Request: fold
Amino acid sequence: MVHGEAWTVKEFFVLPNEYIYWSIQIVLYPFMTGLVAGAFVLSSLYHVFGVEKLKDIARFSLVFSFALLPVAMMPLMLHLQQPLRGTYVMLTPHFTSAISAFGIVFMTYACIVASELWFVYRQHFVETVHVLRDKPQRSSGETLRMNLYSALTLGAWDLSDKALHRDHKAVTWLAGLGIPIACFLHGYAGFIFGSVKANALWMTPLMPVIFIMSAVVSGIALCIVCYIVTMEIRKWRIKRAWRKKHPGACSLTAEELRGVQAFEVKMTSRYLLIFMVLAVVLELLDIIFRGYTAVKSWDILREVIYGIDFTKIFVLQYGIGNLLPLVLLLLPGLTVRRAAIASMLVLFGVFMMRWNVVIGGQAFSLTFSGFMHYHLPIIPHNMETFKEGLTGALLVMGTPFALFYFLNKIFPVFIDEKAR
Amino acid sequence: MKRRDFLRQTAIAVAGAAIPLSALEIIDPRELLAARPDLRWIFLVDTYKCVGCGMCVQACKKENEIPLEANVTRTWVERYVITSDGQVHADSPKGALNGFTTQKIDLNAAGERKIDEGQIEQGFFVPKLCNQCENPPCVQVCPVGATYKTPDGIVLVDRKWCIGCGYCIMGCPYGVRFFHPEYHVAEKCNFCYHRIHKGMQTACAFACPFGAREIGNLKDPNDPVTHTVMTQRVGVLKDEFGTKPQVFYIGLNKEVR
Reply:
């Protein structure tokens, strides 16, 4: 069986070599990079533009962006026919190709996020090491933590006001530099699709801009959801500790936490709304423009957009993924629960948008008189259907949360609330 | 030997060796193998001569180690039937590996369509293969440079370097590329590069009983294929993509895509 045959069903006149070669992993690739870029942009809103209201969620989204980073690469590796040759992209980049820049842009971006993270957490590292060092008796876990943090300080122990001020300046500078690079990282993922002249649905100069907007939308939405979930867990823990008569386990009460949470979620939702409107406007502009100019490919595109993929595009993507959360967020008296539901719907909507671009772009034949239908392999029966099926997709989607759990142990996202 | 003498003699030796070495040129092995400014491979398809027997497809698969039963092929033949109501019916069952054995049009998952013989206005066959574009989009998009155009115009794939990302498959407007079912890298027609360089014909041209396929050299004015391309009305496929395809067709219809 040739690659793509397992999940492609051809209908009418389709060329013999045509299959859906780019499947679920390529749907996930822009989705995951979008989350990385979006989470970073959200954290930069505080660091660069000094949006004080986003202070709490800024650190959270920075760590989350770091957890998502390696996952942006995973779908690419899983979809390659020769995954062991993946490094060739960096060894012999062929610069006329949009993909070849991936290695460079991605590494630059990773360095920026990592160094920003270091500057944000340096003070915490040094302080923790000092506290642990003064302890008369340390558990083995504490010793490990002390050694790890000592290494992570990279020898920079200075905690004078001047040094901290310099740290702060560096963070601002890196966050500022990171915004265009995050946009580039994702905008160029859009360019990979938008520049394929052979594909009538993909080829539009709007593609990179649409991708950036939806990236920011999905990144913010994911941060809101994860923020709410982690806050709920903390509240639950505090309540449990209080019940067990262990006061002092946490410096904040559940009530205080609830206040912080509602405030942050409300503020972030506003930014989510702004970017969502921009994304939807651009996407609709694209469809309207195609219909109005109605070039040769429009006949088949119309059949795909208004026929075969109608439910996926207009019901799932625009209806459930855009319109419904828009209403939920705009209705007065926004509650945390409503924001959480709206954000999850937004995430689903962005995922459907990626799906409709990647799979929808391969739903019609180069002959313009045939269709290809995609059937996602659910139960894997070989390596190919494992990698490019539901299992592979779930693996990619689950990894950032596992990574975040471990990263949170090293870079605790909630440390500063005493100052509030 | 004193250190001073050693240094002096080394300097003389290096300077002396540098003179003959500078006469040497660093030669790109690719250039050495294929740099023949008098060569540009082109292909001519005469659709009037094609009967859709599929001998070319079989010959190609055998010559180029594409499993016969695999549903991918370097070259294929399409059948077009235009009925009096203006409808265009087209198909290419298994790339016409076994020819067109039935009058029904193969619609893949949608079944078959029987066409009333009295309704047929036109019926013809169109063989397809890689167009060896002058401006190949597949070469442009390859992220590692595993696919490249030789100076004599053929686009080749390096099986040892292809990472199998599929971007070239997406980038080709003609659908000639696919993943090789055994090597798991991008695969395409290369005009039987191993044959034409020995002065042989491509496997498909050799197998065609009716002379519908011919390989030629555009740089040679005495080449019969070049003569036809220059003096007759020939067409190319999808020139709107700016790829400058180098497979020329006699009797190309606007219905052919």
In short: Chain B has eight helices and 13 strands. Residues 29-76+125-257 of chain B form a domain with the Alpha-Beta Plaits fold (CATH 3.30.70.20).
